[in-house]
Design a protein that fits this description.
234 residues; alpha/beta; Rossmann fold; Arc Repressor Mutant, subunit A; 2 domains; 11 helices; 6 strands; 58% helix
Length: 234
Amino acid sequence: MKPHRSPAFREKAANSPAKISAVDTAAPHSAEQSGHLHTIAFVDDEECDRLMVSQTLAKSGKFRPVSLYASAEEALLEIPCMRPQIVLMDIRMPGMSGIECARRLKDALPGLVVIFVTGLSDAATMIEASQAGGDDFLVKPLDAARCLVTIRFAIARKRSQDIKACKAGLRQIVPLKHRESQVMACIAGGLRNKEIAWELGISVFAVEKISRRIYAKAGVTNRVEATGWFHARV
């Protein structure tokens, strides 16, 4: 599948046949072979950056550039239909900024990974970009090796966050038996094992045994973690 190019991009590219040939022939995999590749869209008003990144991604054998956009407005219109997994987004472009575009795309596609591309690294811009849902940053001038590494780390980080969120959700809905609920409430109340045993009229050994069952169900290893889990689920 050839990268989708915007009308503005095609018009500019018409005068550069050699460059277009490089992009079209760079990917060594057929569409069937590349079905497992991470799909990426790139939004940048600079044609040279779009070409460089597209070639770099295609040659990597790990990523597949599916769409290139010269403006945030065009990206906002087409990316929700293309549904790439990752978007590289230039922050400063004519018209709508990359930050505003990313904010709207994140609302439409919550699982989307957005990596901002910027020539400025001032704190205010970085904070605003992070608040818009930025998963990572690349600083211009773009370097091919750093670009690939940053994308890989952003994907791995996103996957790790999704797994943790899933596990947290599962832990919160784990049901406890009546006695386990009583012991857990006492643990969350700060009572020690002897105090719990006295409160519930059971042995310390029984408290320890029930506590271990609670820890196993909640996926935690100590009283502090168990207390945090308990408060998160009630």
